[in-house]
Specification:
By secondary structure, the chain is α+β, with helices and mostly antiparallel strands. 60% of the residues lie in helices and 15% in strands. The chain has helices at 38-63, 76-127, and strands at 7-13, 19-27, 34-36. A three-stranded antiparallel beta sheet has the order 1-2-3, with helices on one face. A hairpin with a 6-residue loop joins strand 2 (19-27) and strand 3 (34-36). The longest helix has 52 residues, at 76-127. The two termini are 37 Å apart.
Length: 131
């Protein structure tokens, strides 16, 4: 008999730049289904959310960096260099905003997944006459 064991391990960064590993989903090698550790998903969301705020702070600082026209000198190439800088700055601001949005969506999805699994577990328990 060939059985498989599936597992999803989440690496959760903590405030000391160390990593906390929690197994969020484990499969049963006997084919009995799988178990979701909703606390691991919530811990991941809680510890990742400050990263969203940090990315947004970085984006806001970069957005405030306005350079004057003569910053790169007075030669014609200096104007091209400034224009290139301005383009790269705007691209970086957009990319950081996109990264923050995606990371926030991941945080929200982790919380939502944990809530749905807990709700399903409660419904199943109640369906079998549990408390």
């Amino acid at each position: 008999m060939n059985s498989t064991y599936a597992s999803l391990t989440i690496i959760i960064p903590d405030s000391n730049a160390e990593q906390l590993t929690q197994t969020a989903i484990t499969g049963d090698p006997m084919g009995q289904g799988f178990d979701v550790q909703s606390d691991a998903l919530r811990t991941y969301a809680r510890r990742t959310e400050p990263d969203v705020e940090r990315i947004l702070r970085i984006r806001n600082r970069i957005q405030q960096l306005e350079l004057s026209a003569g910053t790169f000198g007075k030669l014609p190439e200096s104007d091209e260099l400034k224009a290139d800088y301005d383009t790269k700055q705007q691209d970086g601001i957009k990319d950081l905003g996109d990264a923050a949005d995606v990371l926030q969506q991941i945080v929200d999805a982790a919380r939502s997944t944990a809530d749905r699994y807990d709700g399903n577990e409660q419904d199943t328990t109640a369906g079998f006459g549990g408390a």
